[in-house]
Write a structure and sequence with these properties.
Number of helices: 0
Helix content: under 10%
Strand content: 35-45%
Structural class: mainly beta
Order of helices and strands: EEE
Distance between the termini: 46 Å
Number of strands: 3
């Protein structure tokens, strides 16, 4: 589930229902966990020199 906070910012939460870790160095395949996803867009404002 995620929520668009503004045109430039989004936050989401969820649960990993799979049996493997996002950490690819852990290979015992016995993981389930919650996660937080934060995404932002940086806008470049360029001025015209004319």
């Amino acid at each position: 589930m995620d929520r668009q906070i503004s045109n430039y910012f989004k936050v989401g939460v969820g649960c990993n229902f799979t049996d493997f870790s996002g950490d690819l160095t852990q290979l015992d395949y016995d993981y389930q966990s919650w996660f937080l996803n934060v995404a932002a867009i940086a806008e470049s404002r360029q001025r015209s020199l004319a």
